[in-house]
Structures are given as C-alpha cells and as structure tokens.
Amino acid sequence: xxxxxxxxxxxxxxxxxxxxxxxxxxxxxxxxxxxxxxxxxxxxxxxxxxxxxxxxxxxxxxxxxxxxxxxxxxxxxxxxxxxxxxxxxxxxxxxxxxxxxxxxxxxxxxxxxxxxxxxxxxxxxxxxxxxxxxxxxxxxxxxxxxxxxxxxxxxxxxxxxxxxxxxxxxxxxxxxxxxxxxxxxxxxxxxxxxxxxxxxxxxxxxxxxxxxxxxxxxxxxxxxxxxxxxxxxxxxxxxxxxxxxxxxxxxxxxxxxxxxxxxxxxxxxxxxxxxxxxxxxxxxxxxxxxxxxxxxxxxxxxxxxxxxxxxxxxxxxxxxxxxxxxxx
Length: 328
What we know:
Structural class: alpha+beta
Largest sheet: 4 strands, antiparallel
Oligomer: single chain
Distance between the termini: 21 Å
Number of strands: 7
Order of helices and strands: HHEEHHHHHEHHEHEEHEH
Helix content: 40-55%
Radius of gyration: 24 Å
Strand content: 5-15%
Number of helices: 12
C-alpha cells in the first residue's frame, strides 16, 4: 500500500513520477549549516492555519496552505474513488496511510518547486502557446470539480493554473536532463530473457547457510512433479518473481545465465554478491522481449540520470515545513 502511494502520481495533473528521497521536515529539523550557496527557506507559519498561511518554504519559494490542500485533494480524490475514505486510517505499522500520504504530498511539492526554481535559472519555461494550452486543460479539469468541493479544498482557477503550469515545467526539466539517454543506448546490447526467479538474499554472515538451503531446495525440485511456479509457492509461501533480465544487468553472472537458457528450462543455482538465484526461462531473446527490455533499461537510466541531477539541485535550497501542517 505505501509503495503504491509513494510512486503513484496524481492523475491528469502531475506528469512526472520520480521516487525522490527529498527531506520534508519541520522548521527546527530543516536548519542547515550556514553555507553561502544554500538559499535560506522562507519562514513558515506554525499557528492555526489559514488559506494563505505559508506552510512550506523551498528556498525563498513559499507554498500556501491552500496550495498544499489542492495537492492533498488530488491525491485523496484519486484513491477514495476506488478505495473509499477509510483507506486513510489503514495502518502501515508506524503510521497510517493518511500520515504517509502527507509525507508523499510534501515530497511531491518540494520536488516541483526545486525543479521550477532550476528551470527559471536555466531559462526553461512555457511559451505563450504552451501556457495557453496548459491553462485551457486546467480550466477543463476544474469544470469537472463541483463548486462545493472547490470551496472546501482551497481550489481556485489561479491555483489550478499554477499547479498545471509548474508540473509541465517540471516535466520539461526532466526531459532536458534525460533527453540524451536513449541516444546513448547500444541497440546490440539489448538482449533479454523473461524468467520466473527464486531469490534468496545472502551476505557474508550467512552465505554458507543460505547456499545450503537453496541447494537442498533445487535438489528437491528435480524430483518435483509439478511446475516451477507451484514448487516455489509451495516451498516458500510466495510466488516466484516474473522479471525481465538482460545483458546490461549489473548481476553479470545472473544475466549471462539467463541469456544462455533455453525456453522452459530451469537454471542451476546462480551465485551473486547479493545472494543466490534459480530461474525458470519463459522466453528468451525475442524481438518483442528485447524491445521491452530496452524500454525498461532506458527508463532506469533516465531515473538514475535525473536522480543525480535532482540531488545537486536540492542541495541548493533549505526546506522548512510548518509544524502545524505536520500535526494535521
């Protein structure tokens, strides 16, 4: 549940979805050493919140309570449509889904503000036609929201325009950073296999013990009358992972083994630094599969490229979050 909420993006509004480790913290927690190239955060309000109260400061950029409420509404509306309002009280262990959602909204807003600040510095923005098109889409979306919902959640035409525009600029920044990734991918390296994978993690403290466990399991598998899927499910209590693994995978031995397998065969135990694997080959080195792997690989490389750029950007801005907001 938590992973789905962290990675989900607000339908129709937020058009980029990077999983970012952005610190959303209170005013006290956000204090950083005095560094000349860090833009100090705007002061936030810690009393009874009103619509125009500043609740987040990303450098000198201010986020009002109404803007936060709009982002919050987008997320809640998306999930309540399919899961009902009770989803927010569901326990994730140390927090509820609702508490986790607050963190996710904060991360998202901080991400958008950082990217827009960087866009301004790099001259990336919206042309007149682009702005007109984005504002039209915002108005079309706003027309679907009942007036009582708008009033209850601080939703205004100006606020809707701002959110749509800033998210489009953020998308453009993502494209600027990752635009050359696909061109640098060697087509000949995009060979892949689709496998069912049994994985036992191991490290230096338990490597011999885990190896003995998986060796015993594979020995039993050889005499098993059913299929690989049912064997793994019966013996481990969980289904094997279906995954695409290819030539560019950093687990070199695992990738080489997968690519050498024939369809509907089971591998021997494969040892990697992070543990041990056994694979069942579903498909190997077809045109469609290699294309899927290429898309998967490019997406991963784009995410890594963006993450590196974003980390550099985020270091330039002190962040403050209202304690009153966190207490909601």
